[in-house]
Every structure is written in structure tokens, then in C-alpha cells.
Amino acid sequence: MLTVRDRRFDIDAAAVGEWRSCEPVAAAFYDSLSALFPQGERFFMDSVRRYRDAVGGELAGQVRQFIAQEALHTREHLAFNAQVEASGHDIAPLETRTRRELDRVRVRSDVAQLATTVALEHFTAVLAHHLIAHPEHLAAAPLETRRLWLWHAAEEIEHKAVAFDVLAAVTSGWSPLRRWAFRSWRYLDTLWRLLRVMVPNFVELRRQHDPGARPLAELALFLLGRPGLLRRMAPELAKFFAPGFHPWALEDAALAEAALAA
């Protein structure tokens, strides 16, 4: 079973501004990512909740714990986002863009929405792994901000297979080829939609902070050059396309436990 940890983080606008002053590109990336989470996690919760009664046994319990964990992540990122705004940024356009893209997915079937959650949960689990495994990514963040991201990352690893297992259960009557093609297509669609939101959200924040910035070049260097976050993540992200893929093929539960202990 998963563990629901009701943790709160004492982050204020001064700490948000401190990170932005010393690492403006990294801070803009994580702030824009945080702006996605409240609406994204509500989408995740809704998509698995629809199937809570269709799966039984241990998986049904994991669904309940998954929803509880995501609800707490939503609460803490809402608090963090409020401090981003208090520090001088306007995140309303970011939230509008996120809502618009999610609304485009909400008109699809319930199983397609669940598959979108599976895709995003894989992305966040791989990101979480790298944030914990490579401490340099968050080394310059203020202590409480770093604790927030590591707590969230550890729980993303802990529940990374729940939505995947629910999708496997509700499509168990499909042929293996159909299941693989469906989740692979939804994964490609989801990654494209994520880019459509994340890139302009990052650009928006960087230009609010520094009108003279070159945000697209900065983001490309951050993701593909140094520190190369996306470049490092790419091999694990690509494994989603393997026919026999399961999230626990990357066994990193001990990594998550170490982060929570710290």
C-alpha cells in the first residue's frame, strides 16, 4: 500500500525570489511546472476515480491512496504558486493555458483520459527519479522549496504504477497489440500537449522576470545542454514504448524512501 504523508512546507515569496535571483532559468522551469500541478493532479484524480469500483482488491486501495496523495500535492503546490504570485509573477495565463489543454482531453472517452494520466504519470515519475538521483538539479533551491520538490518526487515514484495498473485492468479484454498501440498513441499525444503548455508557460515567466531574456534558447540549453534534464530523462521516457513495459521496470523505491527519510 501507499503512504499518505500530510506534510506542509513553509515557503514564502522571499524564498521564491531568492531562487529566481540565483538561478533564474531553473526557477522559471520549476515554477512553470508547479503551475501545471493543481489542475493536472485534479485531472489525474478524476480519471482514476471513475474506475475505482471497477478494480478490486489491493489495486482499489491503491487508487484511494493515490487520490489522497495527489490531493495533498495539489494543496501544497497551490500554496507554492501563491508565493510565486506574491513574489511578483502573474501565473493566471499559465493556469488558463493548462486548463484549455486539459479541457481538450476531457471531451475524449474515459479510457483515453485514463491513458493520458498514465502517460503523464510516467513522465513525472522519470522526472522525479532524476530530481532525487541527481541532487545538483535542486542544489541551489532554498531548503523548504527543495523539501517540497523531493517529497513530491518521492511520492510520484511510490504511486507511479497505479494508473498504469488500472488501465491494464480495464483493457484486459483487449488484444496485446491493441493495448500497446493505444497507450503508445496516447503517450505521443500527451507529450505533444505537455510541450504545448510547458514551453509557452516557461517563456511567459521568463519574460515577466526579464523582458530581455531569450527564453527559448535558455530552455533548450537547460533541457538538452547543461544540466540537460530532458536529455538525461530521454532513455527512460522512451522505454514506455516497449511492448512489455511496466513502470516498476525501473526499480527505484529505495531511492524514494531515502529521499523521504532525508
Topology at a glance:
Elements: H1 13-22, H2 24-49, H3 57-86, H4 92-106, H5 110-133, H6 143-158, H7 162-170, H8 176-209, H9 215-224, H10 229-238, H11 253-261
Helix content: over 70%
Please, how many domains?
1
Please count the beta strands (DSSP E, at least 2 residues each): 0
Main pleated sheet: none
Radius of gyration based on Cα positions = 18 Å
Identify the CATH architecture: Up-down Bundle
Report the CATH C-level class: Mainly Alpha
First-last Cα distance: 21 Å
What is the chain-wise order of helices and strands? HHHHHHHHHHH
Low-pLDDT windows of residues: none
Instruction: Tell me the β content.
Output: under 5%
- By CATH, the topology is Ferritin
GO molecular function, one term: hydrolase activity
Keywords: Hydrolase
Protein name: Metal-dependent hydrolase
Pfam family, one: Metal_hydrol
What does this structure look like?
The protein has 262 residues and is mainly alpha-helical. It has one domain (13-261): Ferritin, CATH 1.20.1260. The chain contains 11 helices and no strands. It has helices spanning 13-22, 24-49, 57-86, 92-106, 110-133, 143-158, 162-170, 176-209, 215-224, 229-238, 253-261. Helix 3 (57-86) packs across helix 7 and helix 6 (143-158) packs antiparallel against helix 11 (253-261). The longest helix is centred in the last third of the chain and has 34 residues, at 176-209. The chain is globular and about 55 Å long. The relative contact order is 0.16.
